[in-house]
Design goal:
Largest sheet: none
Number of helices: 12
Distance between the termini: 28 Å
CATH class: Mainly Alpha
Helix content: over 70%
Order of helices and strands: HHHHHHHHHHHH
């Protein structure tokens, strides 16, 4: 395949995203749950890596630890899109544009959102309990201090701030998935994924699946409680859906697919 054939233009990406979304919504329940579990675990592993490599860095480095965190976190989304997985935030974009083009109905969209949320949560909590807690990777010293700092920072946002932060996050994550659909090569997909994902982490936006790892990991160490954890999930989930569905799916459907 030539370089020209390997890259889709925006209108072609819109059509490809709608096709992807239709296929995702029509997956069997068992396959959706398994792939959702894997995606949640992949995002959690990316976050675990980010915490491990940035723990203990001196305060004099300023925002550099955040940049390092942002640079390694995209591993999770790379694994989801290249190895295979059903990630809630990506589906909020792709299944939504499939709904707008008539590829799926509203019931199928809502069912997919529910199943992938459950699968992602299970995968993220599995990594949080088995690796962060039981294996002891985030249970003491500089690692626990970094986990505590990050978890409390996420919970400091009220409902409105968490909702707006969720919009910003999935505007960028939705674009990362969008760009990945535009390339046929692994290298092109990785580049498309990496920079928007790195941007949302460096800015500090909230990603509900990432929080499904971070906050339960903090719960297992007694740092935060389940009540405030689930209270965070609600506005971030809604904000992520708004960012992916409205600012990516609806915008590009209106620009490229509405007339067809």
């Amino acid at each position: 395949m030539s370089d020209v054939e390997a890259v889709l233009d925006p209108q072609q990406i819109a059509a490809a995203a709608a096709k992807k979304g239709t296929a995702k919504a029509n997956l069997p329940v068992s396959r959706t749950l398994v792939l959702g579990f894997l995606a949640g675990a992949f995002i959690a592993l990316g976050y675990l890596l980010a915490i491990r490599v940035t723990s203990g860095l001196p305060e004099s480095w300023g925002s550099l630890p955040n940049l390092i965190t942002a640079s390694v976190f995209p591993l999770g989304l790379v694994l989801v899109l290249l190895a295979g997985g059903e990630l809630l935030t990506g589906n909020m974009m792709s299944v939504s544009i499939a709904r707008l083009t008539g590829g799926v109905n509203t019931r199928a969209l809502l069912k997919n959102m529910l199943l992938v949320t459950v699968g992602n949560f299970a995968g993220a909590v599995f990594v949080a309990f088995c690796f962060s807690h039981a294996l002891g990777l985030l249970t003491e010293g500089i690692y626990l201090a970094r986990l505590t700092e990050m978890a409390r920072h996420k919970l400091a946002d009220g409902f409105a701030r968490a909702f707006l932060s969720g919009i910003g996050c999935n505007w960028l994550v939705g674009l990362a998935v969008w760009l990945a659909y535009g390339s046929a090569s692994f290298s092109g997909k990785v580049l498309g994924i990496w920079f928007p994902t790195m941007a949302f982490v460096a800015i500090g936006f909230q990603h509900v699946v990432a929080n499904m790892f971070l906050l339960p990991a903090a719960v297992f160490e007694g740092v935060v409680g389940w009540g405030e954890t689930f209270a965070n999930f609600v506005p971030v989930w809604l904000g992520n859906f708004t960012g992916g569905a409205l600012f990516v799916a609806c915008a590009y459907w209106f620009a490229y697919l509405r007339d067809s």
